Amino acid sequence: MKSKKKILLDIKKLCVSIAENSKNKKLIKSVSFNIKKNEIVGLIGESGSGKSLTSLCILGLLEKKNFSISGEIYFNQRNIINLRENEIMKIRGSEISMIFQEPMTSLNPVFTIGDQINEVHNIHTNLSKNEANELTINLLDKVGIPNPEISVMKYPHQLSGGQRQRVMIAMALSCKPKLLIADEPTTALDVIVQAQILKIINDLRKELEMSVLLITHDLGVVQDYCDRVYVMYKGRIVENSKAKDLFSNPAHPYTKDLLNTRPAVNPPGKELPIIKENYSLDA
């Protein structure tokens, strides 16, 4: 009998609002979901549904002077939602890492690739400068950066978009985190490079026995790589299921319409279905 996987991340009734015109505008509305150890969970939905905002809450990157946040976020059975900045910093980058959508805006243009990855080692490990540099070169080699001994001295603008995303993966995995949040990791990359990036993430996930929260618009990616998937609509989770079941038997009307917009299920020349503006949140 197989043992059940333990839950690594457990979000309970997460709510986020922001002051707007003397009123509180709710952005995240009682969101609950979990991620088990060593699984890939997809989070899908249209732009503005609250996916990236949820990930920023997990990392403690929303300024509480601007946002009102409530609920619980358990990581390794510890509620991390109200940790002080110095406490969450010990977790951020070491136990929970994130790959952001656009690596060119995430990487500092005035520092070399090596300096930026080494900074993660300096913050979270006791490695010497030489040890950190050697580990950085090994990481760059592992994620497919050509000539890593030379590339480590390059600046972000000297790399292609796919190479910069590989650097972000190397940086995110430098401390072997338990959870990787990948927010649209293949945006603006061509199809071949997208497949390479996703394979790298999946291979390293298996090697490190790591969990992954994959935030994406690409439903094909969810179908190919995710174990389970949550569907987000207007700040709420409206459906969750195993990935294979979601595509064969979606339950919520929004999910059905979202899946029907895939070019793969629409013959050439046919106009793609339109996503409606309002769906019942209780359907």
Per DSSP, what share of the residues sits in E-state strands of 2 or more residues?
25-35%
Q: What's the mean pLDDT score?
A: 90
Query: Structural class, from secondary structure content?
Result: alpha/beta
Span of the ends, CA to CA: 35 Å
Strand order of the largest sheet: 6-7-8-3-9-10
Rg from alpha-carbon coordinates: 20 Å
Low-pLDDT stretches are none
Got a strand count? 10
Fraction in helix: 25-40%
C-alpha geometry? globular
Instruction: Note the total helix count.
Output: 11
Biggest sheet layout = 6 strands, mixed
**What is the N-to-C succession of helices and strands?**
EEEHEEHEHHHHHEHEHEEHH
Can you describe this structure in just a few lines?
By secondary structure, the chain is α/β, with parallel strands linked by helices. It has eleven helices and ten strands.
Description:
The chain is α/β, with parallel strands linked by helices. The chain has a domain of 64 residues. It is built from eleven helices and ten strands. Strands 6-7-8-3-9-10 form a six-stranded mixed β-sheet, sandwiched between helices. It has a four-stranded antiparallel β-sheet with strand order 2-1-4-5, covered by helices on one side. The longest helix has 18 residues. It is globular and about 55 Å long. The two termini are 35 Å apart. The mean pLDDT is 90.
Give the SSE layout.
Blueprint: E1 7-20, E2 23-36, E3 40-44, H1 51-58, E4 67-75, E5 78-79, H2 85-91, E6 96-99, H3 103-106, H4 113-124, H5 129-142, H6 148-151, H7 161-172, E7 179-183, H8 191-208, E8 211-215, H9 219-225, E9 228-233, E10 236-242, H10 243-248, H11 253-260
Parallel strand pairs: 3-8, 3-9, 6-7, 7-8
Antiparallel strand pairs: 1-2, 1-4, 4-5, 9-10
